[in-house]
Design goal:
The complex is a heterodimer. Chain A has two domains: 41 residues; 126 residues, 2-Layer Sandwich (Beta Polymerase, domain 2). Chain A contains five helices and seven strands, in the order H-H-H-E-E-H-E-E-E-E-H-E. In chain A, the strands form two sheets. In chain A, strands 1-2-5-4-3 form a five-stranded mixed β-sheet, with helices on one face. A two-stranded parallel ribbon of chain A has the order 6-7. The model of chain A has no long low-confidence stretch (mean pLDDT 83). By secondary structure, chain B is α+β, with helices and mostly antiparallel strands. Chain B has a single domain, classed as Cytochrome-c3 Hydrogenase, chain B (Orthogonal Bundle), CATH 1.10.645. Helices cover 48% and strands 13% of the residues of chain B. Chain B has 15 helices and eight strands. In chain B, helix 4 packs antiparallel against helix 5. Chain B is globular, with a radius of gyration of 21 Å. Chain B starts with 6 loop residues before the first strand and ends with a helix. The mean pLDDT of chain B is 92. Classes of the chains: A alpha/beta, B alpha+beta. At the A-B interface, strand 3 and helix 5 of A face strand 6, strand 7 and strand 8 of B. Chain B: NDH-1 is composed of 14 different subunits. Subunits NuoB, C, D, E, F, and G constitute the peripheral sector of the complex.
Chain lengths: 229, 366
């Protein structure tokens, strides 16, 4: 190949390269159009965001302005608290409220010493008749332990959640098994997995874990005795 | 010299009539049971502890494995609890699909019970009939979500898969088929004299005892208490459909048997209406945030599973994982009455009574 030929080839390559590059450099009119489009899109986005923020703010303001409809369960809650406090004694109900996340289910925190008396009242009182215990849950809140009894009145079609609180070091609450037989195995399960002892329980043994198990697995700080296994 | 002594007999955990790994230690005086102590935990997998380190979508497959005979209702109780907390809207088509699979599941679950219960008390062929018909439902589920038992079908905000073309027609065809088969079941078993002699008046209790022990499902309704969460605390779309809640009067195994068979009929009735009203198009997933974080607080939701009230108690701290997740398992609660029922009964009735309660050990032990 002569030098001249080489030069020609090089020139060809260059033009080819140039040709290849050319489409990448968009011609000015298209560029302007694109920019205008981008700008319009950005403006539209900003407008939408502003409108959304405004609508949200208005909704929040409207929520604040209109007084909240009192829940139909509010009366029930007040009645339960009054009945318990009048019969068992002032200070029995430590906290009370409606659970908004749960169709406004009334929730009462009961002083655990009064629990046996309160449980009988809830079951037998003519206005309450919470004869059906649907569920018992135990929760470790790290600073204290909580037991929740979910009760149901089949006659009145009403439900209520009763909470007992106990400290983590020597957790103990009175058992509800004498009042509702349902509580028996549920409390055994809580004893097994959270280590809460229920005084007055007829048969408090482990139920899920083996009898020689060490520790209570549902505690937040639980560490298996032998983590390798 | 004649001497008598009591005999300690261990039944299970590996025994076909205990439907899984359930063990019961009985004290016998001759043929009569004087004490019965259930021993549980052989299938305890710590689902509730495991759930604390999983996000909500990851927990759904674990619920399949609790009550593995009725996985669809277990799926539903979890996603329903999360939706209740977050106030999520579920598209109508998705909710219809959920309801249809739940009712199909109820039929399938009762068929398993019917077949295995009769097998327990000595009738071989009903088992084959029941599993033949259940197979149709299992195939329908397989077509819908690719699994026969552990479906993992529902999601927070909807369902994972839409019904494939032609699926709803198959469900439609199944309803009259099953209605006809139920008549066959009745002819085959319900009036059989040997069968009646085995279960009439066995394992009897009254309504007050049932309520005191927190029984639910057919175990409660057989005593005459008309309580069904689908009717009394309606969830999903149940308030749209007409159906009856069957009850018994004597609270014995025979009434439980009749209640469950009637429940299959009522489920078919619901299915018939649901298939007719099924929306022809629409979304199967609602608008759900990418990461599902229920607000701080707690909720307890309950639905009617084939075995009774299954509940889900979620305590949330606003994270993607639950702070505490507790399941109210109907089998676990229903089983509590067993020791009480067994005292004074003969050994042969142990199987009759245990089978009549209808437990799934995956759910008892959780």
């Amino acid at each position: 190949m002569s030098d001249e030929e080489k030069e020609n080839l090089k020139a060809n390559e260059l033009t080819e390269q140039q040709e290849a590059m050319e489409p990448k450099q968009a011609p000015p009119p298209i560029d302007a159009e694109r920019e205008a489009k981008l700008k319009a899109a950005a403006e539209a986005r900003a407008a939408r965001a502003a409108a959304k923020a405004k609508a949200e703010a208005e909704a929040a303001q409207a929520e604040l302005d209109t007084p909240k409809e009192p829940s139909p369960r509010q009366n029930d809650l007040e009645r339960y608290v009054r009945l318990i406090e009048d019969t068992v004694g002032q200070g029995t109900v430590k906290e009370s409220g409606l659970n908004e996340l749960n169709a406004d289910m009334p929730m009462l925190v009961i002083a655990s010493e009064q629990w046996p008396e309160v449980s009988l009242l809830l079951r037998d009182h003519g206005e309450l008749r919470f004869s059906y215990l649907r569920n018992v849950s135990g929760i470790d809140y790290e600073t204290y332990l909580e037991i929740v009894y979910f009760l149901l009145s089949l006659d009145n079609k009403q439900d209520v959640a009763i909470k007992l609180r106990t400290d983590r070091e020597a957790p103990s609450v009175p058992s509800a098994t004498p009042t509702w037989s349902t509580a028996n195995w549920n409390e055994r399960e809580i004893y097994d997995l959270l280590g809460i002892s229920f005084t007055g329980h007829p048969d408090l043994r482990r139920i899920m874990m083996p009898d020689d198990w060490v520790g209570h697995p549902l505690r937040k700080d639980y560490e298996p005795l032998d983590s390798e296994v | 010299m004649i001497r008598t002594e009591e005999l300690l007999l261990n039944v299970g955990p590996q025994h076909p009539s205990t439907h899984g790994v359930f063990r019961i230690v009985v004290k016998l005086d001759g043929e009569v049971i004087t004490e019965a102590t259930p021993v549980m935990g052989y299938l305890h997998r710590g689902t509730e502890k495991l759930a604390e380190s999983l996000n909500f979508t990851q927990i759904i497959p674990y619920t399949d494995r609790m009550d593995y005979v009725s996985a669809m209702t277990n799926n539903y109780v979890l996603v329903h609890a999360v939706e209740t907390m977050m106030g999520l809207e579920v598209p109508l088509r998705a909710e219809f699909l959920r309801l249809i699979v739940m009712e199909l599941q109820r039929v399938a679950s009762h068929l398993v019970w019917w077949g295995t219960y009769l097998l327990d008390i000595g009738a071989m062929s009903p088992f084959l009939y029941a599993f033949r018909d259940r197979e149709i439902i299992i195939n329908l589920f397989n077509e819908l979500c690719g699994a026969r038992l552990t479906y993992n079908y529902m999601r927070v905000g909807g369902v994972k898969w839409d019904a494939p073309p032609g699926w709803m027609d198959k469900v439609k065809d199944f309803i009259p088929y099953m209605e006809k088969k139920l008549e066959e079941y009745d002819k085959l078993v319900s009036g059989n004299e040997i069968f009646l002699a085995r279960i009439k008046g066995v394992g009897q209790y009254d309504a007050a005892t049932a309520i005191d022990h927190g029984l639910s499902g057919a175990n409660l309704r057989c005593t005459g208490v008309r309580w069904d969460l689908r009717r009394d605390e309606p969830y999903s779309l149940y308030s749209r459909f007409e159906f009856d809640v069957p009850i018994g009067h004597n609270g014995d195994c025979y009434d439980r048997y009749l209640v469950r068979l009637e429940e299959i009929r009522q489920s078919l009735r619901i299915l018939k209406q649901a298939v007719e009203q099924f929306p022809s198009d629409g979304e199967t997933m609602g608008k759900v945030p990418r990461v599902i974080r229920p607000p701080v607080g707690e909720t307890y939701v309950r639905i009617e599973s084939p075995r009774g009230e299954i509940g889900c108690h979620i305590v949330s701290k606003g994270k993607a994982e639950p702070y505490r997740l507790k399941f109210r398992r109907p089998s676990f609660v229903n089983l509590q009455i067993l020791p009480k029922l067994l005292v004074g009964e003969t050994m042969t009735n142990l199987i009759t009574i245990l089978g009549g309660i209808d437990i799934v050990v995956g759910e008892v032990d959780c």
